Every structure is written in structure tokens, then in C-alpha cells.
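Can't paste images in this forum, so I'm doing it all in text. The chain is below; anyone willing to post the predicted C-alpha cells underneath?
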Amino acid sequence: MRAMVRSFCLVILVCFCTTLFGQANTDSLQQKRLKPLIITSSIVYTGALVGLNELWYSDFERESFHFFNDHTEWKQMDKAGHFYAAFHISKGGYRVLQWAGQENDKAILWGTLLSAIVLTPIEIFDGFSSAYGASYSDLIANSAGGAFFYLQQKHWGDIKIHPKFSFRRSQYPAVRPELLGKSFQEELLKDYNAQTYWLSVDLSKIIHSNFPKWLNLAVGYGVTNMVAARDSQSTEMGYTPQRQYYLALDFDFNEYKTKSKFINTLLYLVNMIHLPAPTLELSDKLKFHPAY
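Text version of the structure:
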């Protein structure tokens, strides 16, 4: 369910980015864009929440609002996903508000708050559902993702550490397809064994040298041998859950702009993904991947 939430949020982000790069005019600030943007976004998001409520929660009984402690599940991979989604929603919101003519400091603030506006209602829905429950750790991860954007943009005036995502199929959906996915699309959302979350460091901006602008250094986090949400459940089924840590080269396209708005949009979206690159992995032992 958490993975589906992230997918929902990223769809909103793609819409923001498409609007931004498809129409932006950097030579002038268009204050008249702000009101239509707020009205349209509010209508679309309200409609999405209504649909979300009908699709995900209508089959379960409503209860009084309650919390559910899931901070030990999936070795916190879902929390990394919440952090990632909140960061990129904040960044996308900031860019759109800039396009709409909002003053920079206000765009940073309201772009950051946008991630809370988008994600918090989903936790509220969870809190009233008998099948779920609101999660303190989800709220913390959401806040951390927004804060990670805010502090960089406010202090540096730029993003120098980029959260990224990568995926490669694992063997585990065959063990529990109903939980980990019955198709590639479901695995992409549900199989945490196949996901890796990264922080890509822009060395050319941090060390201020002649380091290539297109080359970053990334640290990553993933898990393996998880066929259930909790370690004890996986262990009972004969699997030993493990954390995985990575150090890799990464490709950065933030500095490159073309005359094509479509290509600029594509580069923006691709830069949310960690592309295959030489990687060191540390789990049960040290491994080298020519292109992980």
C-alpha cells in the first residue's frame, strides 16, 4: 500500500513538471498564472483524493482515528520511499510556483509545504481505516524529505544532494506474488528487494573544482531476502533478511538545458533515477558490479 502511495504522488509530480517545462517563460514572472494554478491543482487533487478513498478504503470498515506502528517493517525501505516522494513533490512544487511568478522564498516555503499537503491526507485516510492505521514514522519520513529540499534550497540556493531511485527485478515475487507482485508493474511498486534508494552528491558544486558536472558520487540503500514485512516472518519462511549498502558513480543531468522543452522535461525526470553505473555493494560481503 505504501508503494502505491508513492506512485500516486509521483504521478502528481510528473504533471507539475510537464506543466512547468511545457509552458515556462524564464524571461518574465507571470503573476496571473498563480491563481489558475492553485484552483486547477486544488480541483485535481480533491478529485484524486475522492477516487483514492473509493478505490482503497471503501472495502474496509471505518474506525475511530488510530495509529499503527510499522517502523520495523521492510527494514525501513518504505520510509526511504516516503522521503524520496516528499523531496520530489517539494522540488516540483517549488519549480511550478517559480513558473507562476511566486517570489523565491515563498516558492521554497510553499513548495516544501506542498509535500505535507499532498501526503498527510493519505495518512489521515489510513488512520480511519480498519485495515491500516496512521503511521508516525511515515509522517516523520515525509517531513524529512520536505526538510531535505527546504534546507538545501534555502541555504545553498540549489540542490547539491539528489535523492534517486533504481530498480532491478528480484527472485522473490515468485515466492509470494500476492505480496510482492504478479507482474513487472506490480513488482516495481511492491518488491522492496528490487528497489534501491540513493543520495547522489554533486561533487562539482560541493568541492568547487573542475570535477565533471555530469558525474556524481552516490550512496545507496536496499534490502534482500524480504518475503514478509517483518524480519521474524521472513525468517520463519527460511529467509535471512539483510540490509545492503552501495557506493556508486552516478550521472547528473541538472546542468544541461536544451532548446527543446520536451527534452528538458525528460532530463528532469531521468535525473530522478539512478542509472546503471560501476558500484560497490556491502551486504554479507563486499561485491563489485560493473553496472548496477
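Confidence is low (pLDDT under 50) at residues 21-29. Residues 1-159 form one domain.
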